[in-house]
Specification:
alpha/beta, globular, Rossmann fold, two-stranded antiparallel ribbon, 7 strands
């Protein structure tokens, strides 16, 4: 089946409301057109992926095609949730892209050791954020073959 027969959902985990708004605007500006869901921390991300609580409405639906994950969040940070996802046999194949303000070599090394697929530092300008969203979206939505649990038949 061709890629055009699938809708790829994206989830963004970021605690900063302004960053979430800018990322949403960047998705709109990039014209990807994929559904994007937002969660505010690692606890919510795991509830979303496990279809618990308010996210039970997603039960039976495919996992997101990829996760944009911030590292520095309250309750459960990106490093901790990354480790939990990659150790969960139901979730470990979901691609994860770190999108964070951290440029620390320690964070880069640790997240790759935990199985992250990409590490991107948040840009300063909105234009560069749009470029990143376009590039990441193009790569994960149009180029790579995603695991079957991350795809849904298009309506």
């Amino acid at each position: 089946m061709s890629r055009s027969n699938f809708t790829v959902r994206i989830v963004v985990a970021d605690d900063d409301a302004d960053d979430r708004m800018m990322i949403q605007d960047a998705f709109t500006e990039s014209k990807l057109g994929n559904p994007v869901d937002f969660v505010e921390d690692g606890v919510q991300l795991l509830e979303y992926l496990r279809r618990e609580g308010e996210y039970a409405k997603f039960a039976g639906q495919p996992f997101p095609g990829f996760i944009l994950l911030d590292l520095n969040m309250p309750r459960k940070d990106g490093r901790t949730v990354l480790k939990e996802i990659k150790n969960d046999p139901d979730l470990h194949r979901i691609p994860i892209v770190i999108l964070t303000t951290s440029k620390a070599e320690e964070d880069i090394i640790k997240t790759y050791n935990l199985g992250v697929n990409s590490f991107i530092c948040k840009p300063v300008s909105f234009e560069k954020l749009v470029d990143i969203v376009k590039t990441v979206g193009h790569y994960w939505i149009e180029i790579v073959a995603l695991p079957p649990e991350c795809q849904r038949n298009a309506a």
